[in-house]
Specification:
The structure is a homotrimer of 119-residue chains.
Chain A lengths: L2 E7 L7 H13 L11 E7 L2 E3 L6 E11 L4 H18 L7 E11 L5 E4 L1
Parallel strand pairs in A: 1-2, 4-5
Antiparallel strand pairs in A: 1-4
Chain lengths: 119, 119, 119
């Protein structure tokens, strides 16, 4: 059930999408909260049109949103966010002179109405 | 007001976007919860970069997120999710040897701050 | 921390992405709620595949989602949504014969699990 979407600004030209997807799934699947590794569905999303703040500075960002069925403890959410952050910290490029912001967000999904099946 | 976003993995090469958008809007508009058919705004989003789990298996996914103004009953949410699932079950391709996951999520939108108008 | 994502239907062919991003960031940064202008991370997202309602009408849409750390007052949320709406009202094209819908949504992000840092 976990859905992970990683947005990154297109000025992070060498952002290693495949490597990050592989590593972040590995990190999440080691959590006892993930019962079936196949449930982890992650994607990267290159953002071509963006604006950060209102100053003429050289800036980039990477932002991950993890969506989970509601009911996880605050500790579990914090742990999962940190697993993602570890991977992003390691692999996100730091172009010279660019301020790069990294953030991770956890969003609850409504459990009662969630549909999940395998075709 | 309902916003529907349907993500699908790019390995579902024959995913019929136009047909699914048409059918899913028709299915939602038949619900008594939808007062004005023009309110239903749906989009499909082909995901080129994704990773499912951490095993070298042939996997794909389709995931729909429906965003509604808060206040609907659990029964209404379940019904709307199922209307979407029916269409996705019918039209999502099943390439030979691929495990395809289908999921539908309902997300509440804050009613007090929502802006809506026609230009 | 605010994340702003502006979806617009691709039939709004002259949608001025760069101008809107600049103006919306300027409008948000004037709010006393925004402590550091560099925190505002905005993107536009052109939607190529969409369907609005179930009638053969000429329709388009622009929809903004602003994600904020939870805890803002309803008045603050309403003010921020309206700042975004003002910019979209001003710059969204109105092609002749097209009904264009505009909407703005505020979504809370879980504060306890949020990760934020600069690389």
């Amino acid at each position: 059930m976990p859905h992970l979407v990683i947005d990154f600004s297109a000025n992070l030209t060498d952002f290693p999408e495949a490597q990050i997807l592989k590593d972040v799934n590995a990190a999440l699947c080691k959590s006892p909260e993930i019962k079936d590794e196949a449930d982890v569905k992650s994607r990267t999303n290159r953002i071509a049109h963006f604006e950060i703040g209102n100053q003429p500075a050289n800036r980039g960002f990477v932002h991950a949103q993890l969506r989970l069925l509601a009911g996880r403890s605050p500790e579990t959410k914090k742990d999962l966010a940190e697993r993602i952050a570890v991977v992003l910290r390691k692999h996100t490029p730091h172009p010279a002179g660019m301020l790069v912001q990294l953030s991770v967000e956890i969003l609850d999904m409504d459990r009662a109405s969630y549909v999940k099946e395998r075709l």
